[in-house]
Amino acid sequence: MNGLAFLLPIALGLGLLGLVAFFWALKRGQFEDLDGAANRILYDDEEEGPHG
Amino acid sequence: MNAASHEPLLAADETTILVVPGMHCAGCMAKVERALSAVPGVSAARVNLTAKQVRAEHTHGVETAQLIAALEAVGFASQPRTEEMTKAPSAVKPLLAPLAVAAFASMNVMLLSISVWSGAEGSTRSLFHWISALIGIPAIAYSGTPFFKSAYAVLKRARTNMDVPISIGIALATGLSFYETLTGGHDAYFDGVLMLIMFLLAGRTLDAMMRDRARAGVDALLIQAAPGASVVSPDGSLQWITASELQPGMVMRIAAGERLAADGEIVSGSSAFDQSLLTGESAPVAAHVGTTVHAGTLNLDAPVDVRVTAAGADTSLAEIARLMDAAEQPRSVYVRIADRASRLYAPAVHTLAALSFAGWMIAGAGIYQSTVIAIAVLIITCPCALGLAVPVAQVVASGALMREGIMVKDGSAIERMALVDRVLLDKTGSLTLGKPEPDAAVVDSLDNEAAAVALGLASHSRHPHSRALEAALLARGHRAVRVEGVAETAGIGLSGTWNDRKVSLGRNDAADVVSTTLRIEGRDEVLIPFTDKLRPDAHAALARLKALGLKVSLLSGDNQKAVAEVAAEVGLEAQAAADPAEKREAIAALQATGHKVLMVGDGLNDGPALAAADASIAPGSASDVGRQAADLVFLGDSLNALPRAVLAARRTMRVVKQNFALAIGYNVFAVPLAIMGYVNPMIAAAAMSGSSLIVVANSLRLVRAAK
Q: Chain A residues contacting B, CB < 8 Å?
């Protein structure tokens, strides 16, 4: 029973952290171009590649 | 490659957004970004592939034309995005936040629920229920809003849709779970409700994503030049006036290659006009002083001055727009398959729940137990898999179509497309490519000398015939020779000297076909006829449509002779010389005899027909009006897009029906359990996610639907 006292807040806190991170990403426009993001991984030469 | 690193003092103080419709892969993105970054003064370039746009940050000194030229050098056509083209509201965005909240809450509540199911008792269970309620109730209230709003909106109009049973189910299950929590009871359904909301929102998001993506693709194709005209002021100076501000009496100066923004009468000059977008007529129409010309037609040969006789709402263009508005009404009557299902579904499950309640009361159970069972019936029948059955299948299919270059505007287009049994094809620009091509046999017969001179002359002109001839000659590997003193006389053609011989390329009044004549001093003149070629694969595509059981015929605004020629070539029945209203009537006549009509067209004159047909498809080269009115837009030249789209639509609807069968089959098993009172939250959660996953898996089979 004592374990619950800190395990529960930790579990909920971690979940909440994920949610906050998602909202942050949403606001920063990271979901604007899903097709582009999927394709960017295929760039060959990251060093010479353009910087955004 | 980053210009800013070489010139650190330059600040990026301007942003230009270019629309690049040709981008479609990682290689294109890299090329576009590199090409722009290499322009001096550009500090950053970033592509948005979904919107087919690139945003370049640069200093004041960089002109938009420079950026366009840089892209052209690597093979991409682009246009600046105009101010009016501000970002259209996304359908996905408002759904993402509720979806994230539902996902977060359902995972955390599920964690607690599993502890309860594995045997938490007494005060521990009560504590877990309370925490679940604390997370669950606000999360349900927030993430369920899309359903509550939609249900409220239809109930106000005394109708029903899928959101009504969903909202009722959510509200009752949440209420029951809260009551259980308050009284320290056994079963709370917070996890099930949240999971239901999450699955349904996922379905909605997919549906919205499909619409967003298709719209972004179509928007990227739109020609952004604001319609308008250069107007000659009384003092002789020219001034650009937008189409909406043109007034009758103004005199517009129309350059060769420019499209008219208003109806009018020619007051000086003479030229030929391409009216194909407006009437379907393929041959250019000669126009002289006094001839009436219409908005939307293209001036081919020479600059003319046109006095405006009608502008804005009075033009023949606006008349077509009115016809289109009237035509769209029958289509809005179409009820989507998911809504039709819910019309049967909602009364059925509510009756079932009411009957279970009554049955248990009669059997002697208490009000509490009867209510719990009735609500369990509602929860277990809540249309989780049904909510996913349609959107997931349609999203997967439209993704498959998009990879084949066919853009679907919305899910209902696929449903309507699957039902068609008649196809009406416009000729110019739909069955044919819509641009004049020099006769291949004649071009092949040109010897190297003649071809080189023709190329040398043609390269000096922007006339569509010159461009087409140049492309045809270059494609055959000819090289141009240098022709001295080339002059272009509007309406006549090009002339110059080569090796002290007079050479010319241009009109021949003796010819009775659309053609241009190549004259080289000391040699026989060559007549090069221009024809509008059939799209590649036209024969194969028409054969495939026939094999699919569709009857195809031509419906064209072009003259009898031109239509009859093409109709004979492809072996189709044809109706010629149909104006926009007649095209619409032809469709209405077929619909009245019970046919479902697919209209294929590109021009302004097809707009009303595209809007009136049960489903419609336009080539990417179509007029703006054509593309906006059509349900589907196909890129590329091949007509194979037609059978492909019909086939994919039919496959999609087959999968949708299977999905319904799966979802209903699951209910056949689960509902008796619920009615008998055997359902607990754990069974509800397992059944719901199980049936949803099966439906999603079945829909994924459509990945290759468009092959």
A: 1, 4, 8, 11-12, 15-16, 18-19, 22-23, 26, 31-36, 39-44, 48-52
The three-state DSSP-derived secondary structure of B610-622 is HHHCCEEEEECCC
CB contact under 8 A, A50 and B101: no
Chain A neighbors of B42, CB-CB under 8 A: none
For residue B697, what are the CA distances in angstroms to B194, B460, B690, B693? 22, 58, 11, 6
Using the beta-carbon criterion (under 8 Å), do B104 and A15 form an inter-chain contact?
Answer: yes
Tokens (6 digits) for B23: 């981008």
- AA letter at B576: A
Global pTM value: 0.72
Strand partners of residue B229? B241
- Indicate the DSSP class of residue B29: H
Distance from C-alpha of B53 to C-alpha of B86, rounded to nearest angstrom? 12
- Asked if B96 and A26 come within 8 Å (Cβ–Cβ), the reply is yes
Is-catalytic flag, B426? yes
CA B190-B194-B199 angle, 5° bins: 150
pLDDT along chain B (707 residues), means of 10: 42 75 78 87 84 83 82 79 54 86 90 84 86 92 92 84 82 90 86 88 81 62 55 78 79 78 85 71 76 80 83 67 60 69 80 90 87 84 76 85 81 86 86 80 82 83 78 82 78 82 80 78 83 83 88 83 81 80 86 89 80 86 73 83 91 90 84 83 80 87 82
- Among B280, B312, B329, B227, CA closest to B611: B329
Q: Any CB–CB contact under 8 A between B134 and chain A?
A: no
B335 by DSSP, 3-state: which?
A: coil
Query: Are A36 and B44 within 8 A, CB to CB?
Result: no
Establish if B77 touches chain A: CB-CB under 8 angstroms.
Answer: no
Q: Residue holding tokens 């809504």?
A: B339
Q: Comparing C-alpha atoms, which of B507, B160, B539, B202 is closest to residue B349? A: B160
Q: Which of A1, A4, A6, A19 to mutate to test the interface with B (most CBs of B within 10 A)?
A: A19
Specify whether the CB–CB gap between B545 and B423 falls below 8 A. yes
ipTM: 0.74
What's the rounded Cα separation, in Å, for the pair B602 and B632?
A: 11
Establish if B124 touches chain A: CB-CB under 8 angstroms: yes
Neighbours of A17 (CB within 10 A): 11
How far is the C-alpha of B384 from the C-alpha of B378, rounded, in Å? Answer: 12
The answer to whether the CB atoms of A36 and B25 lie below 8 A apart is no
Establish if B2 touches chain A: CB-CB under 8 angstroms.
yes
Name, in order, each residue with C-beta under 8 angstroms of B327's C-beta and a sequence gap of 6 or more.
B584, B608, B609, B611, B612
Q: In angstroms, rounded to a whole number, what is the distance separating the alpha carbons of residues B40 and B37?
A: 8
Q: Inter-axis angle of helices B93-117 and B190-221, to 10 degrees? A: 160
Residue with tokens 């957004």, as numbered in its chain: B17
